[in-house]
Design brief:
With 653 residues, the protein is an alpha+beta fold. It has 4 domains: 174 residues, 3-Layer(aba) Sandwich (Rossmann fold); 81 residues, Beta Barrel (Elongation Factor Tu (Ef-tu), domain 3), CATH 2.40.30.10; 105 residues, Elongation Factor Tu (Ef-tu), domain 3, CATH 2.40.30.10; 120 residues, Orthogonal Bundle (Arc Repressor Mutant, subunit A). Helices cover 36% and strands 28% of the residues. The protein is built from 20 helices and 31 strands. The strands form 9 sheets. Strands 2-3-1-4-5-6 form a 6-stranded mixed sheet. A hairpin with a 3-residue loop joins β2 and β3.
Length: 653
C-alpha cells in the first residue's frame, strides 16, 4: 500500500470571512491558539491543522486575513502546494480577498479550491451574484477553473463536497510534485519556541528534501550547525519529515534567542547567505504607481521580511502589469534558491505591489549597461536546464563551487549529467596549482577572466611604455578580486601556454604589446646601440654615456634597459652594459682559455682578454652568474653551462 502524499494547503481571504471556522469544520481543529485571538475573534498568527483525505494528507496553514497581518500571511504561504480561497457569501469580494489572490499568483501556485462561507446567511439569488463576482475576480488566474463550493461552518452545509473538491485538487498537485525530484532538505522557520525539558523547537513547512532524527543541519543565515533531536508532525512524534509536511523540529546546539522567523533550516552547503540577488520582477497591474529604479521595498522571501533596494536593468521604471530583470540589494543577508518566488510590498504605505522569482541567489553586482552580463542573467530564466547551468557557471566565475551550488543556482538536481555534457563539448577548463588544489571554470567564465587579466596588463603597459615586461607580482596584486594568488597565477600560466601572454626575464608581456617609443626615442635608441657596438669590449659606463649624449638621464636609463631586455645589450652590472656581439666574443675567448681545465685567476683572465680590471671584474662575475664559469678558490674554471652557452654564442655570432 502506497503511503499518503503530504501536501501543504494554505488558506487565503479577507478578515472575518470564516477561514478559521471552515478549517475547524473540515478538521475539528481550532487553529486560533492565542488568548488574544480568542478574545478578539480574529486570526493574528499562523494556525495549523491536519486533514487526512486518504491518498493525500493536507497540512493546513490558516493565515490571518486582516491587512495589518499580511506579513504573517506571507510567512504562512511559504511552501504551500495548493490554496483554499475563502469568500464570505454575505460580504463577497473584499480588499484582502484581492490582495491574497495576487499574493497566491505571485507565489506561482497552480492548484486550489474556492469556498463560499456563511451561505446560511444569504438567499439563493444573492449567492448567485456573489458566485458571479468571485468568478470575475479569478478570471485569468490559476483559480479560473477551480471548483467553487458553497459552505456553512455553522450548519455543516457543503463540508463533504469541499473535502471532495480539495481531494481532487490535491491529487493534481500531488501529480505535479511527483514529477519533481526531492532535492536537499530545506525548511523556512515560521515559529520558534522553547519546550520544557527539550529546548529549542522550530516549526515550518518542509519545502524540499527530507530530514531525520539525528541528522546534522545548519541554520541560515549564520551557518549555525545544529542536530535534529526530535521531530513532530501535527503533534505526532515521527522519525523523519519530507517535502509537503508541516514539522516541529527539536534542535540541539542552538539557543532559541539565536533563531527567528525568517531563518531557514537546511542541509550543509546548500543555502548560502547573500545580500544581492538577480531576479525577474513583476509589477501588479493594480500597482498604484510605476516601480522606479532604486526604489526601497519590503521583500518577502520565504518567511523573511527584509528591506531592499530595487536596481532595474536598463529602464528607469517598471510600469504596472509589466515585468523585467532586476537586482535586489538587501538590508540584511538572506538565503534563497533558483526559481524561488517572492513578494514585494511598498515601504509606505504598506501594500502589495508585485513580486517575481529568484534567478541568481548569490549574485555578483551587474552594471546596468553590461548587456552581455544581463544576457547571461536572462539565460538563468530559461526552461532549458543546460542554459541555466552554463549561465550559473559563468556567474560563478573563478570562485570555488560544488555540485550542490549548481543545485541551488539552477534548480537542477542532477548537475553531474550536465557537467559531463559540458566536459565532452570542451566547455570546461580545469586548472591545478598543487596536488590538492584545483578549480574548474566554464569556458565563458575563463574567457572573461582572461579578458580581465589582459586589461590589467594593457593598463600596466600603458603606464610603463618603455618596459618590456610587467612584474608578475604587480599583476597578481591588481587581480586579487579574481581569487587567491595561486588561482590567478594558474590563469596567467594558462594564457602563457596559449601564447596570449609572453614571459621574459623582465616579467610578463601581453602579446602584441610592448615598449611604445616616439620617433625621437627610436632614433636615440639606435644611437645608443651603435655607440655600444663601436665600443666593443670596452663600453662606457651609464653615467659616461649620459654626459656624452647630453640627454635626460632617466630616458637614457630606460632606453638602455629596453635594449638589454631586447637582447641588443647585455647587463654585466647595474652600471655597465656591453653590446651582445662583444659579450659573445669574450664568452668564446674565456671558454677557449679555460678549456685545458687548469683554471685561471682573475688577473690571468684580464691579461688574456687584453682588458682592464674595470671590465674584468664585472665580466667574470657575470659569467659566474650564467654558469659559464665558477670559482674554485682564487681560480675560475668552466661552469656547468659552459658548453651550452658557448654554443649559443657561436650560433648567434
Amino acid at each position: 500500500m502506497n503511503q499518503p502524499v503530504p501536501l501543504i494547503l494554505g488558506t487565503a481571504g479577507h478578515i472575518d470571512h470564516g477561514k478559521t471556522s471552515l478549517v475547524k469544520a473540515l478538521t475539528g481543529t481550532d487553529t486560533d491558539r492565542l488568548p488574544e485571538e480568542k478574545r478578539r475573534g480574529i486570526t493574528i498568527e499562523l494556525g495549523y491543522a491536519k486533514l487526512d483525505l486518504g491518498e493525500v494528507v493536507l497540512g493546513i496553514v490558516d493565515v490571518p486575513g486582516h491587512e495589518r497581518f499580511v506579513r504573517n500571511m506571507l510567512a504562512g504561504a511559504t511552501g504551500v502546494d495548493l490554496a483554499l480561497l475563502v469568500v464570505a457569501a454575505d460580504e463577497s469580494v473584499k480588499p484582502q480577498t484581492r490582495e491574497h489572490l495576487e499574493i497566491l499568483k505571485l507565489l506561482r501556485l497552480r492548484h486550489g479550491v474556492i469556498a463560499l462561507t456563511k451561505c446560511d446567511k444569504v438567499d439563493a439569488q444573492w449567492l448567485e451574484l456573489v458566485e458571479e463576482e468571485v468568478r470575475e475576480l479569478v478570471q485569468g488566474t490559476f483559480l479560473q477553473h477551480a471548483p467553487m463550493v458553497p459552505t456553512s461552518a455553522a450548519t455543516g452545509q457543503g463540508i463533504p463536497e469541499l473535502k471532495q473538491a480539495l481531494f481532487q485538487a490535491a491529487r493534481q498537485a500531488a501529480a505535479l510534485r511527483a514529477a519533481e525530484p526531492l532535492g536537499p532538505f530545506r525548511m523556512a522557520v515560521d515559529r520558534v519556541f522553547v519546550k520544557e525539558g527539550h529546548g529549542t523547537v522550530v516549526t515550518g513547512s518542509v519545502v524540499s528534501g527530507r530530514a531525520e532524527v539525528g541528522q546534522e543541519l545548519v541554520v541560515q543565515p549564520g551557518e549555525i550547525p545544529v542536530r535534529v533531536r526530535a521531530i513532530q508532525s501535527h503533534e505526532q512524534a515521527v522519525s523523519s519529515v519530507r517535502r509537503g509536511q508541516r514539522a516541529a523540529i527539536n534542535l540541539h546546539g542552538i539557543h532559541h534567542t539565536q533563531l527567528r522567523r525568517g531563518h531557514e533550516l537546511c542541509e550543509p552547503g546548500f543555502l548560502v547567505p547573500s545580500r544581492l540577488m538577480t531576479v525577474r520582477c513583476h509589477l501588479l497591474p493594480g500597482a498604484p504607481r510605476p516601480l522606479k529604479h532604486r526604489s526601497r521595498v519590503r521583500l518577502h522571501l520565504g518567511t523573511a521580511e527584509i528591506l531592499a533596494v530595487v536596481s532595474l536593468q536598463g529602464a528607469g521604471e517598471l510600469l504596472p502589469g509589466k515585468d523585467g530583470l532586476a537586482q535586489l540589494f538587501l538590508a540584511q543577508p538572506a538565503v534563497a534558491a533558483w526559481g524561488q518566488p517572492f513578494v514585494l510590498r511598498s515601504e509606505s504605505p504598506v501594500v502589495t505591489i508585485g513580486g517575481g522569482h529568484v534567478l541568481d541567489p548569490l549574485a555578483p553586482k551587474l552594471r546596468r549597461k553590461d548587456a552581455a552580463a544581463w544576457d547571461w542573467a536572462r539565460r538563468l530564466d530559461s526552461p532549458d536546464p543546460m542554459q541555466r547551468v552554463q549561465a550559473a557557471l559563468y556567474f560563478f566565475g573563478t570562485r570555488p563551487w560544488s555540485e550542490r551550488d549548481l543545485v541551488r543556482a539552477t534548480g537542477v538536481t542532477d548537475p553531474e549529467k550536465y557537467l559531463r555534457q559540458l566536459e565532452q563539448q570542451g566547455q570546461l577548463l580545469h586548472l591545478s596549482w598543487s596536488p590538492t588544489r584545483s578549480a574548474t571554470l566554464s569556458r565563458d567564465a575563463a574567457q572573461r577572466a582572461f579578458q580581465q587579466i589582459a586589461q590589467v596588463l594593457e593598463k600596466l603597459h600603458a603606464q610603463q611604455p618603455l618596459k618590456l615586461g610587467i612584474d608578475p607580482h604587480e599583476v597578481l596584486r591588481r587581480l586579487s578580486y579574481l581569487g587567491p594568488s595561486p588561482l590567478v597565477q594558474a590563469l596567467v600560466e594558462e594564457m602563457v601556454r596559449r601564447g596570449q601572454v609572453l614571459r621574459n626575464e623582465q616579467g610578463l608581456q601581453l602579446r602584441g604589446h610592448g615598449p611604445k617609443l616616439s620617433a625621437a626615442e627610436r632614433r636615440l635608441l639606435g644611437e645608443l646601440e651603435q655607440l655600444y657596438a663601436r665600443a666593443g669590449e670596452r663600453p662606457p659606463g651609464v653615467e659616461e654615456i649620459t654626459r656624452q649624449l647630453g640627454k635626460n638621464p632617466q630616458l637614457i636609463s630606460k632606453l638602455l634597459q629596453l635594449a638589454a631586455a631586447q637582447g641588443t645589450l647585455v647587463q654585466l652590472s647595474p652600471t655597465l652594459l656591453m653590446h651582445r656581439d662583444a659579450e659573445r666574443r669574450l664568452r668564446r675567448q674565456v671558454v677557449q682559455l679555460l678549456a685545458d681545465g687548469q683554471g685561471r685567476t682573475l688577473s690571468q683572465i684580464r691579461e688574456a682578454l687584453g682588458t682592464t680590471r674595470k671590465y674584468a671584474v664585472p665580466l667574470c662575475e657575470y659569467f659566474d652568474s650564467l654558469g659559464l664559469t665558477r670559482r674554485q678558490g682564487d681560480l675560475r674554471v668552466l661552469g656547468p653551462r659552459a658548453e651550452e652557452l658557448v654554443g649559443e654564442a657561436a650560433g648567434s655570432g
